[in-house]
Amino acid sequence: PAIAAVIPAAGVGQRMQADKPKQYLRLHGKTILEHSVKPVLAISAVQQLYLALSPNDPYFAATGLTAENIVRVDGGAERVHSVLNALLAIDAEKMPWVLVHDAARPLVRPQDIELLIQRCLEVGHGGILATPVRDTMKRGQSLINATVEREHLWHALTPQFFPTALLRANIQAALAAKVVITDEASAMEWANEPVLLVEGHSDNLKITRPADLQLAAFYLEQNQ
Ligand code: C5P
């Protein structure tokens, strides 16, 4: 089936303490955003990429991202609103599936995206890339309340892949019900839709703090 891609890139990236949003910081001569877009556009079934950008974004024009199949939409107050704006721009009949990927994840492997798509199409419902938790997990504030069973815990990564119309409807319904939505899967879980966990790789990190940029540069060198 034809696939649409959504990349929310309208965040300000406060935790990076940088002079510009993190998606515009440079990694090996290219912006993080360009790195994040590349493996998504490399998927042959992806027909259009919807990029959610801040309405007065002064940085996008200077990137090399000028492909005809890139559609720009306005971002919203939070990530979920940016994603929803992009979903509303998609013709779900033409592109019945959608791949949502963070602009701040420059190192996702194209093979992992292919695997996610293939597994979801096999089972006929949505799914996400994720990695198993390796540390011992504790619940608590300043003191530990409990150790959380690690065996069935995962880190949710992106891309996340869902039927377009269903994702759009469930995000709208979850927002109306004031559910906190930090990724697409949370809206689908809230609606009791099945979401497949597909094991990815931990080098698909989200650039969040300054040290992440150094780690990403290291991974990039290893993979070349
Ligand atoms: O800040 P965080 O790392 O959670 O952001 C994840 C992704 O969501 C980033 O690609 C960021 O640009 C995007 N985002 C957005 N609109 C917002 C906030 C974040 O598109 N209002």
What does this structure look like?
There is one protein chain. With 224 residues, the protein is an alpha/beta fold. The protein has a single domain (3-222), classed as Spore Coat Polysaccharide Biosynthesis Protein SpsA, Chain A. It contains six helices and eleven strands. The protein has a seven-stranded mixed beta sheet with strand order 5-4-1-6-10-7-11, sandwiched between helices. A hairpin with a 3-residue loop joins strand 8 (137-140) and strand 9 (144-148). The radius of gyration is 17 Å and the shape is globular. The mean pLDDT is 96. The site of cytidine-5'-monophosphate (C5P) has 17 residues, from helix 2.
Write a compact overview of the structure shown.
This protein is α/β, with parallel strands linked by helices and 224 residues long. The chain has a single domain (3-222), classed as Spore Coat Polysaccharide Biosynthesis Protein SpsA, Chain A, CATH 3.90.550. The protein has six helices and eleven strands.
Bound molecules: cytidine-5'-monophosphate
Any idea of the CATH class?
Answer: Alpha Beta
Say how many strands there are: 11
Amount of beta strand:
25-35%
Return the average pLDDT rounded to an integer: 96
Structural class: alpha/beta
Topology-level CATH name: Spore Coat Polysaccharide Biosynthesis Protein SpsA, Chain A
CATH architect. name: Alpha-Beta Complex
Number of helices: 6
Compute the separation of the termini in Å: 32 Å
How much helix is in the residues?
25-40%
Strand/helix succession: EEEHEEHEHEEEEHHEH
Classified in CATH, the superfamily is: Spore Coat Polysaccharide Biosynthesis Protein SpsA, Chain A
Low-confidence stretches: none
Query: Biggest β-sheet, characterized?
Result: 7 strands, mixed
